[in-house]
Amino acid sequence: MKAIFVDAKKCLSCHSCELACSVAHSESKNLYAAISEAFPKRPRVHVEAVPGGAFPIQCRHCEDPVCVKTCVSNALFVDEDSGAVLHDEGRCIGCRMCILACPFGVIEEQEAGGNSCAVSKCDLCAAEPGGPACIAACPTGALSFESAEAYSKDKRRKYLIQFIEEEVQHV
Amino acid sequence: MSENLYFEKGLAMGDARSADPAAIEVLKKAKAEGVETAHERYAAQLPQCGFGELGVCCRQCLQGPCRINPFGEPKLGVCGADADLIVARNLLRTIVGGAASHEDHAYSAIRCLYEAAQGKADYEIKGFDKIQSVAAKLGIETEGKEPKEVAEAIALAAFHDFGKFDDEPMHWLTATAPAERVEVWQSLGVIPRNPDREIRTAMHESAMGVDGDPVNLLLACLKLGLVDGYGGLQMGTDIQDILFGTPSPVKSAANLGVLSKDNVNIIVHGHMPEVSEKVVEWARKLEEEAVKAGAKGITLAGVCCSGNEVLMRQGVPSAGNFLSQELAIITGAVEVMVVDVQCFMPSLPKIAACYHTKVVTTTPIGKLPGAEHVELVPGDADAKAQSIVRLAIDNFKNRNAAKVEIPDICSEAWGGFSVEAIVGALATVDPENPLKPLVDNIVAGNVYGAVGVVGCNNTKVRQDHQTVELIKKLLQNNVLVVATGCTAQALAKYGFMTPDGAKQYAGEKLLAVLTAVGEAAGLGGPLPPVLHMGSCVDNSRIGDLLGALAGYLNVSIKDLPVAASAPELQHEKAVSIGTWAVALGVLTHVGVVPPVLGSPLVTKVLTEDVEGLVGGKFFVELDPGKAADTILAHIAAKRKALGI
Questions:
Q1: What number does CATH give the domain A61-121?
Q2: Does the beta carbon of A46 lie under 8 angstroms from any beta carbon of chain B?
Q3: Where does B82-243 sit in CATH, by number?
Q4: Are the C-beta atoms of B53 and A19 separated by less than 8 Å?
């Protein structure tokens, strides 16, 4: 399956991915209208910065998701088709065990206005034909949505290019 | 093909970037030759930053940049500024940028007039009627004085507004704006005292740690709109008419097809007629040299408002509007593009380097790496203009015929409709009372209302499309349209500025009025349904016309059945002009979302509350049909309130 990958060196901490995420999950799907909706949607991706760097982080859609295991009401489940970890609001009882269990801190309480006891998390923009909105919104290309295989191949090639350049310089 | 079908042809070509068939042809050529234009650069910028789009990014101090999150936290910048304050401060600085541009433009014209009046400049003062009318407004004695003396006194009166240090309103404003408006602005405390001082104060007011009240900042926006209106537009037009003459109706042409494959092509681009008038004068005088160099002659053309200035006064054709500037060079047929100030893209020398074109900059503040710089100052304008024209003639031999492709597309276009020219045409119907025929027809509903359509092109919207669709609908509903700036050039390309255009586009009742006036004025057919009133500083002409109509009817401008629209605005100047129009009391449409929606307060004040203060307000509508409906409903409401 495809996953979201991050090139942390390219993240300028502009938070555009967060805006795009909120718009993608809004009623209107339009920035100007989304900000005035009765219950503006909080982003499901967050650019977290610590001394030394910034990194946009959202649900990793784990193969063996601990959040799904802890969910007593079966609200969290792995979608068979896409492999994404999805959340059925109607089943959620708001126990917050998933928030407790998630090692990445990317499951949060939902904003006001929805099912008030539900949580919110990245759904890989399941409803968006163009794929995750955060990817398209990133102005520097720090985010990509691809298979681990493709990501690793690209990374190997980049490493090789750098390795050869450095070797040539040393000769 | 009938020139009046160019819009339909452009639409049928199905290019989302433009509705102009000439532009689309050249964009194809650009692609084939690997040349990037503003459209490709815009696509590369996408997606644009949402914080910037909403106006909630603050870069005023070095603690920032701060951004307000419209979907959550943070709601405050480091200093404590919220979205309302950040948006209001940013808006004020945008309007300052626009007002400063127009004010500096006017100031150059005043300096040129002052030196010309003293015999120290290469300019002959041509606008004797305007000297009389401006002097009368300013209260300057003309009896027994030489025109040059009066012109000098007028220049000094203008300089005085820039130099005075008291708190009285600027004189040019109180002398030229309707008294009722002056009273309204005075009661709101938004009358400018000295245009330079207001710009300084506004930059201070919007700095970190000064004004924290968004409403107070929005009042400052109104004041800076008036700085633009009277320290920029009104002064600019008045002084330029004195220097170069008041325009009168003239037949010309518009679109890239005005360029010639056999001639030396010189394009004037920018805004200052001091530059473009001189280039035009010397190109005409030196045509023989071009023939000796192997060309058949010299073809002059204009882009943006320099183009409008020389179209209005000299009948020089327009090569196109803002988004056609790069395309003109890509035709491969332009020897020299002369620029002065404002709206020329920094990309021009890079594009010119793909062809033989030389870009020539002419002012100390408008230089471009890769361009030739020939500084054109009033005292040495003739020699400098000659050298620019000779540079073009000399460059003709470097033209690569294989790269020349000029679209065979241009429309006839009439320009030159100054207020004096419009009143002159109406006077042929009623010499005693020239405004009476127009007002009578407005009252009778033959002219349902009037709309001033102004502004730019913007890569965010299909070139010319919104403008043409909006104007078509207004004309069908018998609304008289006047236009300036790049919007005027847009309409000129599709036959809206021809007598035939009246038959094609105007509603039946409006056509009858245009025909009656056109025939009485000896034009041998109807007036064009869209009257070209000039450059963007010439929006003052629209203000003058509104003032005259309101004065005749003894009502406020805010009560007239009129509206303004900037369907494709891009420049800060369009924002400051729009603010002036709102201050005049005019409903003002904008067709591109301005970066203010991140503040609910600022949005509400601009689109609702400000109407209670000055009678005008903004409305944003991206759909031209819906925009026309709103304008028509507004006109209907104003007509009803007037009892007509």
A1: 3.30.70.20
A2: no
A3: 1.20.1270.30
A4: no
